[in-house]
Amino acid sequence: MRRRDRQNVFSQIRQSFRFGLSAFKYSKRAVQLVWKTSPILTAIVAILTGIAGLLPAGIAYLGKLIIDSVVTAASSGTGPQTALMYVGFEAIAVMMLTLCQRGLSVCQSLLRVLLGQTVNELILEKALTLSLSHFEDSEVYDKMTRARREASSRPLSFVNRTFGLVQETLGLVAYSGLLLQFSGWVVGVLAIAAIPPFLAETKFAGAAFRVFKRRSPETREQIYLETLIAREDYAKEVQLYQLGPVFLNRYRNIFHRLYQEDRNLTLRRGFWGYVLGLLSSLAFYGTYAWIAIAAISGGITLGDMTMYLMVFRQGQSSFSATLSAIGGMYEDNLYLSNLYEFLEQEIPLAEGSANQGPIPQDGVRFQNVSFTYPDATQPALTDITFHLKPGEKLALVGQNGSGKTTLIKLLTRLYEPSSGQILLDGLELREWDINHLRQRIGVIFQDFVRYQFLVGENIGVGDVDSLEDETRWKTAAEKGMAEPFIQTLPQGFYTQLGRWFKSGTELSGGQWQKIGLSRAFMRIKADILVLDEPTSAMDAEAEFEIFERFRRLAKDRMVLLISHRFSTVRMADTIIVLEAGKLIESGTHSELMQAEGRYAKLFTLQAAGYQ
Ligand SMILES: Nc1ncnc2c1ncn2[C@@H]1O[C@H](COP(=O)(O)OP(=O)(O)OP(=O)(O)O)[C@@H](O)[C@H]1O
């Protein structure tokens, strides 16, 4: 072999071993996780694994003792006691092995259930700490989706395989110990014949690993298409626009593309597995012949021969089990790396701890605030400055995409400004204790959540401390104009909403919005109320009345309203007009009308439409 070739082979072997070792990267953590889930079950599994690993070698040794004592008894004419005693021992050993295996499978089943729950809880707890920007980051979202998808199976499968590997390795050590009595060469042959299949397995497992990783966008697209086809909230549009077959086709095409790749890899893996497996068989039969000759020539006893052959055969099957365990561990490893990457996703620490600001009655100030979404090229807001005093009602006006919702997201600290400052009572938002800050703000977004809960709970979520307080539901529903229609529902406040659960009722868009508004009225401790187009599905009259109520009922509170209806907007104390992320006008309705700028133009345009 040329020097270059030799170097290549060595570097390939080195690479394979490094890759082999990397399969264990998460073993420690996976075992810790399982241990945390149930120390007792984990300890039992570990002990049983050890016993199940060593017992087969013991059984093989007892087999040898049986044959040797039978041969001795037959040739010397002594009684069968010794042979029978060994038969008894072997029977006990086999029973113990069966018990161990059964115990292992019972413990593993229990662990699987517990571990699934532990991992799901870890994922959900982590999800609660993510910021909105994390949810909007496709990579993080992807990690979370995949982590959740296989949460209940992968960690245990990984741990089972790790334990399985330990078990097989223990077996291999024990077999090698027995075989060494015959010849060190046999052990050498066993090991050398195993190297080619090992190299092939790691090479193909590596390829499978890379394919898996590369495909994650396609997998995500598949999950998305599944959702579109199978979820009730999309069903309406998918059916009416006859999109089903198109989506299914896309789904199918992705599968076929992936399958092609999978099939090629599986075929190549199978072919090489078979060819290299033949090498092991050759080695086995070569050694078989060698052992047989040794027995014929009287070098070893018949019992020895039986034991060596059994041990050799079992050693081989242990080895192939080890190989497939390593192959499977790569896949699990990928999952675990995903899980841990997700669980270790850095969350910026909530910095602030303040519960009050230096100027208690100062309200909210935006000072030269600019903001660009992560990965966006254009800023969504540029240099915004305004002051909202306690009790003041402020309306935000602007075309679609002008930055109104973004401004609310900054005020509620779902995002941090890229530059400039937002102050509440004279203190920057980031200095405030985040929980305290959130308690002071009540927001109803245009896409507020329609929980598939009871009507009352849908209102109650506005104040988590009074989630189930019926009296509070009623007061809030009256203020949000939802009470009259709730009375007509089959079980009033106890009517189940949505279609996911039994006997659920669906509401109209406007009725849902009244529920949303009532939710805002639950937030009695909040002194800043934000209404981001919560009334768009209501008729103009209802919207007018709602805002009128807000003015009356939220007299001392700051209200920030986003609406495209100028009849409502004009009631605000101050109106801010945004255009392409910039504040272009601000003032009262009459001031802005007098100025004859953008607001006046839009107002006149809309008023003309109503005439
Ligand atoms: N999560 C996001 N990531 C990146 N860009 C975003 C995101 N949300 C909004 N944008 C962009 O920021 C700009 C402002 O959007 P915003 O939702 O604040 O507008 P808006 O005034 O509330 O519009 P509308 O009246 O349609 O509700 C738009 O150009 C939009 O494309």
UniProtKB/TrEMBL annotation:
Keyword set includes Nucleotide-binding: yes
Alphabetical keyword list: ATP-binding, Membrane, Nucleotide-binding, Transmembrane, Transmembrane helix
GO molecular function: ATP binding
All copies of domain ABC transporter, residue ranges: 364-605
Stretch forming the signal peptide: none
ABC transmembrane type-1 domain span: 43-331
Pfam families: ABC_tran (PF00005)
Cross-referenced InterPro entries: AAA+_ATPase, ABC1_TM_dom, ABC1_TM_sf, ABC_transporter-like_ATP-bd, ABC_transporter-like_CS, P-loop_NTPase, Type_1_exporter
Membrane topology: Multi-pass membrane protein
Cellular localisation: Cell membrane
Spans through the membrane: 40-63, 182-200, 271-291
Protein name: ABC transporter ATP-binding protein/permease
Organism, as annotated: Laspinema palackyanum D2a
Taxonomic path: Bacteria, Bacillati, Cyanobacteriota, Cyanophyceae, Oscillatoriophycideae
